[in-house]
Design goal:
Strand content: 15-25%
Largest sheet: 7 strands, mixed
Distance between the termini: 21 Å
Order of helices and strands: EHEEEEHHEHEHEHEHEHEHEHE
Radius of gyration: 20 Å
Structural class: alpha/beta
Number of helices: 10
Helix content: 25-40%
Number of strands: 13
């Protein structure tokens, strides 16, 4: 990601209008990048975004000032805005995504209404806390419905996938991890040797769903964190056990649905619950934070790298090239 010599760098001050009487001012300490941020920066995002807007969904900060009518938060609290500031309970009819419908969080100070802010667990440092709002909540939402002794297929080794791996192992799921890189699969298995992780290289085996079935004695996994889309959804469904869950968290594969005619029959025949995961609600973030506080799960082992604010462009390029295993974080 390069800036041409003849292009002048411009800056602007971002104002976030707040018509309520419960504003909260936050000093940002860390922000976690995701592949979507790299897409937006390169003009390749699938959904419309705010022109010349600020990127970023995942941030962790400290409250430094509050409005007079703020009731539930106080100065010093560690908080983060929900990725969708309209999605408080999961039942709201509207949406407002950070870095899409409104500015994102790549900034040193942010102002939000207290109702969209979730408290973060205090045992985590700022870098670990910064991956909770989007990556963490997405993984949490995607794994809902799974319980101890079941199995999960987690696709990829990015931030959401690695967070999901940590949650899955914490609740006693057998994990099947897929990637196109033997190097990345080996690195993750060496990092998390117990319990053993089952692996699938989908680049080497085009019929990777059959390998997943072999790992599960022909039954299929109970739940899938599906992040590719058209090119993989049918195969994911074919290796989901009957009555299982496919959580669609992304669509990195931009192919067309060439096998669309098979999807509905497979969905019906295998009684699959196919659900779209668009991060989660503010209530989901609160539930995740409570679970983390109770279990004290740490995430320093899934932080790929931390970058200075001034090196944000280099961090985005690193992310865009797919070099990371885990989360890439900006320290502010």
């Amino acid at each position: 990601m390069m800036i041409a010599d003849n292009v002048g760098i411009t800056t602007r001050r971002a104002y976030r209008r707040n018509d309520d009487h419960t504003p909260v001012l936050i000093k940002v300490h860390a922000l976690a990048l995701k592949y979507r941020d790299a897409n937006i920066s390169n003009g390749g995002n699938s959904w419309p975004v705010t022109p010349h807007g600020i990127i970023g969904n995942d941030a962790a900060g400290e409250i430094v000032a509050v409005g007079r009518q703020v009731k539930f938060l106080k100065i010093g609290d560690r908080v983060a805005p929900n990725t969708d500031t309209e999605n408080l309970t999961g039942r709201e009819p509207t949406r407002s995504w950070l870095a899409a419908d409104e500015d994102g969080v790549l900034a040193d100070f942010l102002e939000y209404d207290e109702k969209v802010l979730g408290k973060l667990s205090t045992y985590l440092d700022w870098i670990q806390a910064s991956i909770i709002p989007c990556a963490g909540v997405t993984a949490w939402s995607a794994l809902k419905g799974a319980w101890i002794g079941q199995s999960a297929l987690i696709q990829g080794t990015g931030g959401v996938a690695m967070f999901a791996l940590k949650l899955a192992e914490a609740v006693g799921l057998t994990v099947v991890l897929s990637s196109s890189s033997d190097r990345k699969l080996k690195a993750v298995c060496e990092q998390f040797p117990e319990p053993p992780i089952l692996t699938v290289n989908y680049a080497k085996n085009l019929n990777w769903h059959e390998e997943v079935l072999e790992h599960t004695n022909g039954v299929g996994v109970d739940i899938i964190l599906e992040n590719s889309g058209p090119g993989t959804l049918l195969k994911s469904m074919k290796c989901t056990r009957r009555g299982g869950i496919v959580s669609q968290v992304g669509f990195l594969d931009r192919k067309k649905f060439d096998n669309a005619q098979e999807i509905l029959p497979t969905l019906i025949d295998r009684r699959i619950i196919l659900r779209g995961i668009n991060a989660g609600s503010k209530m989901d973030m609160d539930e995740l934070s409570s679970a983390l506080t109770a279990t004290q799960i740490r995430f320093d082992d899934i932080i790929d790298s931390a970058w200075a604010f001034d090196n944000a462009n280099e961090a985005l390029q690193y992310l865009c090239e797919g070099k990371q295993v885990g989360k890439v974080v900006i320290q502010i």
